[in-house]
Recover the amino acids of this structure.
């Protein structure tokens, strides 16, 4: 999805609006791509559009041409989007992939994740919501450390 989107956006005729070009790209995919979940394909297109937009912003800001390159299978670092609805205690898309085991327990309130592969090892990057504890008021007192190497550290 990413490479095909970059190929379409290279000419500059089509704007990098992922919602506008998504249906054409998804309909023109080969048969073996039909099994991949819809949200993963959509976010692959969105990632490509974001990369092209950022390259254009950098060009407008600095005047230096930044090309968006295709993603390679041989790259030792790969990542893909995983929606939070697909992650459960049983695994990721457990109905399609089967049961998976995690090295750590999943947090309670997870957000959308990224599945990364680094040199053949797979990691699930799970952002989660944490309640912040409000710090107590110290009575407007500040301690000054004169220090040896740095002068006056708060």
């Amino acid at each position: 999805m990413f490479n095909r989107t970059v190929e379409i956006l290279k000419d500059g005729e089509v704007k990098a609006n992922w919602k506008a070009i998504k249906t054409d790209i998804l309909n023109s995919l080969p048969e073996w791509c039909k099994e991949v979940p819809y949200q993963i394909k959509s976010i692959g297109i969105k990632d490509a559009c974001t990369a092209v937009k950022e390259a254009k912003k950098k060009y407008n800001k600095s005047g230096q041409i930044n090309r968006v390159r295709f993603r390679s299978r041989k790259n030792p670092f790969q990542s893909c989007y995983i929606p939070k609805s697909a992650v459960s205690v049983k695994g990721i898309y457990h109905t399609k992939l089967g049961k998976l085991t995690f090295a750590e327990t999943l947090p309670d309130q997870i957000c959308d994740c990224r599945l990364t592969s680094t040199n053949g090892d797979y990691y699930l990057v799970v952002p989660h919501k944490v309640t912040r504890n409000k710090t107590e008021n110290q009575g407007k007192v500040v301690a000054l450390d004169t220090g040896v190497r740095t002068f006056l550290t708060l």
Q: What stands out?
A: The chain has a mean pLDDT of 81. The chain has two domains: 1-71, 72-129.
